Amino acid sequence: MDPHAASRVADLRDLLDRANTAYYVDAQPLMADSEYDRLLAELVALELQWPQLADATSPTQRVGGTPIIGFTQVSHRIPMQSIDNTYEIGDFLAWYRRCEKAIGHQPTLVADPKIDGVAVSLRYERGRLTCAVTRGDGAVGDDITANVRVIRAIPLKLRGLDQRPTSLPALLEVRGEIYMPSAEFDRVNAQRTERGEPLLANARNATAGTLKSLDPAVAASRRLAFVAHGRGEWDGNPRVTNHWDFLAALREWGIPVNTLAQRCASADEAVAAIGAFAQIRTTLPFGVDGMVVRVNDFAQQDLMGTTGKSPRWIVAFKYPAERGCTTLRLVEWQVGKGGTLTPRATMDPVQISGSTVSHATLHNLEEITRKDIRIGDQVWIEKAGEVIPQVIGPVIATRTGSERAIEPPVHCPSCGGEVVREGPKLFCTNAACPGQFRERVRWFVGRDQMNIDGLGERLIDQLVDAGIVRQFADLFRLPRDQTANLQTEAVLKSGKPSQRRVGEKTVDAILKSADGARSLGLARLLCALGIRHLGSAAAKTLARHFSDMRALMAATPAELEALPDFGEITAQSIAHDLALPALRTTLAQLESVGVDFTSREYRSLESRGVGGAESGPSAGDLLHGKTVVLTGTFDGYERRVLTAILEARGCKVTSSVSAKTDILVAGAEAGSKLQRAHELGIAIWDEQRVRDALATGTPAGSTPTE
């Protein structure tokens, strides 16, 4: 070992770590990017020459390694709950009064800009990054550690680990947002324009797509940023008893926090902070969609607790959506998985909420007609929820008479097939339409459908273009070598020749995931097929009443209409589609590759008893067989958990109140559904009554979250 090499490696690592901290935490760069890159290249060369000096926390580990096989799911030991929103100062003050009442005096608050990114939890053990997990559904997320490790803004080890390791927490779980700065978003889109690729819709979606790429080199090629805003599990410093001091500790440990955060001694100061931030939020170099305000003291947070959905001690104030005015130049019609044609507007680029917008949805033909939108119009654009751009309407006063009406297509833009209109929507009637097929494959492999991991949009396009996937069944028998030899997504995006392939390990992971998808059962398969009027709730209803696919296909429209929440139009449409030769061919192909058509939810006639009324343990159950709607928030249950419990007890849980609804379960802040239930004379239960009913035999493992 050359002692000079070891010393130089240590110096370079320290210098590059300090450069990252200076840039992302202190906003005081130590060096130019070119100098950083030169020093990093020197360190790479030394580590290659002296492999015994390897260190997993070295800055060289951020350049991106081999593609990962897929994402595993990780349970959050402390759930990542969502935050309640408020849009009016009066509602914010009402929240503050609730906090004051619960605590017994005026609490100190911390107001922090809400950056529009992807929520993530970073886990540090003994000062080293060991795991990074997305929020997911709050209880379970995806392990994205491989992609997070290449983000320079996130330290691989906490500052002070080498000099004073005992001062660091043994365990630290940091919650925050990974985001793409506006300048980086514009740079990536400029590159895509040069390569003739579709532009990324917005910075948040671009961030999510980057983090979910199976190739860490994609994340390494983009300068994503990170800002911490909360804590999960930790074995920390007992002197840190509030959020403001916690943010200071994070900065000391080298973790970026938002420098615009403010401590507020009263509600008036918080309102002033919200108002002041409104004046500068559009000038920031990143997207924001509000201001998060929380009770500062940890003990007071614990005293207030949480509902089943959100902590009571924190709220997000959302600003009115920003609008921009531009010229509508073109309308293109895009075909979806069910053949629906959706109009997409192309406009002169306009800056809205920190990003450049040149495309927006027009929803459907009926909306175009109602708003009288024409090509050549000056139009108002707004970001729905600060994310999805949409055309609000035309500026009538600026019309010159040269504007042209938007004509609906007669033929499908993808296949040239016939287009028919049903209500406000247009449909391509060609079941073999390639545009439909690509979207249907993307839907089919989705997490809530067949959950085949590793098949991103780009790889699906490649598989379809190469003729490897011509039908759903092909997804379960991908040719290993041919698929492995396709180029990686990163190579395709760069537009440069390369020998990098998808690889055998990635294909093996996809095939393993597909193998598990074979046994998901009837409800998931029905949802995956993309049949019109057949979403997840309707699919579960069918799976409860039919033992397998053959029994379902033999059902008449009248039998389907008799099911809960199935009207005449829905029943006839589903019966019609199930009888289509193309769908039956698809099902035969899926059966030939071992996809199981058996229902996991079916209750046999024997268990129902005479006339369909179940006997046995469920007899006399107040809930069994009822159609239930949930509204509001609940103290003891997460919504999805309560839904699963009720379904296990034989309930049909639906999303809307109708004459077929038996019970409305109303939690806190129940809205229009409660009023509708009163109008229809539907039984209204509170959370305690549900608890009492469930106490007669809640299935094991389905206890509420306290």
Please describe the topology of this protein.
Layout (H helix, E strand, L loop, with lengths): L2 H22 L8 H17 L23 E3 L9 E2 L2 H15 L5 E7 L2 E8 L2 E7 L5 E3 L2 H4 L22 E9 L2 H13 L8 H9 L4 H5 L4 E11 L7 H10 L9 E3 L2 H14 L7 E8 L2 H7 L9 E4 L5 E13 L4 E13 L2 E7 L3 H7 L2 E2 L2 E7 L3 E7 L9 E2 L13 E4 L2 E4 L5 H11 L12 H9 L14 H5 L4 H6 L9 H14 L4 H7 L7 H10 L3 H5 L3 H5 L6 H11 L2 H12 L12 H4 L18 E5 L7 H10 L3 E3 L8 E4 L5 H9 L2 E3 L1 H8 L12
Parallel strand pairs: 2-11, 21-22, 21-23, 23-24
Antiparallel strand pairs: 1-6, 3-9, 3-10, 4-5, 4-7, 7-8, 10-11, 12-13, 12-16, 13-14, 13-20, 15-18, 16-17, 19-20
Helix pairs in contact: 1-2, 17-18
Could you please describe the fold and organization of this structure?
This protein has 706 residues and is an alpha+beta fold. It folds into 6 domains: 3-62, Helix hairpin bin (Helix Hairpins), CATH 1.10.287; 73-317, D-amino Acid Aminotransferase, Chain A, domain 1; 323-428, Nucleic acid-binding proteins (OB fold (Dihydrolipoamide Acetyltransferase, E2P)); 445-517, 5' to 3' exonuclease, C-terminal subdomain (DNA polymerase, domain 1), CATH 1.10.150.20; 522-602, 5' to 3' exonuclease, C-terminal subdomain (DNA polymerase, domain 1), CATH 1.10.150.20; 615-694, BRCT domain (Rossmann fold). The protein has 26 helices and 24 strands. Strands 12, 13, 14, 16, 17, 19 and 20 form a 7-stranded antiparallel β-sheet that branches. A 5-stranded mixed β-sheet has the order 2-11-10-3-9. It has a 4-stranded antiparallel β-sheet with strand order 5-4-7-8. Helix 25 (672-680) links the parallel strand 23 (663-666) and strand 24 (683-685). Helix 17 (522-528) runs antiparallel to helix 18. The protein is globular, with a radius of gyration of 28 Å.
